[in-house]
Amino acid sequence: MTFDFKNLKSDLSNISKTIRFVYDSDKRLCYFRLVLIIVQSILPLISLYLLKELIDTITNSGTSGSDDVWFTISLVCGVFLFTQISAVINTIVGEILGQRIIDFINSLLHNKSLELDLTYYDNPEYHDTFHRAQQEATFRPIQILNNISELIKNLISFVGVAVILASVSGYVLLIMVIAGIPALFIKLTRTKIYYEWRKANTSLYRKVNYCSMLMTHRI
Question: What's 217's DSSP letter?
Fold first, then answer.
């Protein structure tokens, strides 16, 4: 199975549209969430550096450098506390922003449905598209937002670790980059296959939902 690079431009375009939806839903929260993501990405690197400094201080100074040791320990504890606080704030902001995104997209769907001509409601393809939009509006934008957030965090952390490894050996950095390519390829391929499967079975899902509604809802 080969990855279709021709659709990469279309996928990137869809991601950019999703990011635009997120941004339009609440601009201030988007900026605040971005700042929190950057902070959470940098804090682990700071913790690693402080732990290194703590070990060096204990090794080189011994008991004579106890003030420096306690000062470094205080910094490590402070960074750890700030990391936990920022994680809680990021979770709260993410939940609020997620609800804003759901409300924003549902509003777009409702407005668009009012603008369409009645002939569209007799078109099965339109119903399939509208069904996918309704079903995925409650979780897909949030999922993409979380994935983008993790991507930014991992990218910043990767750059930090890459700088450290490059100072030790360039071959270690090269091996780490090559080792991550198969996982990226598998994830992109799996996502593409799942999307095509969901798209191909949309009509079946609509029929199942309709039959389930007839059997379980009071009409």
Answer: S
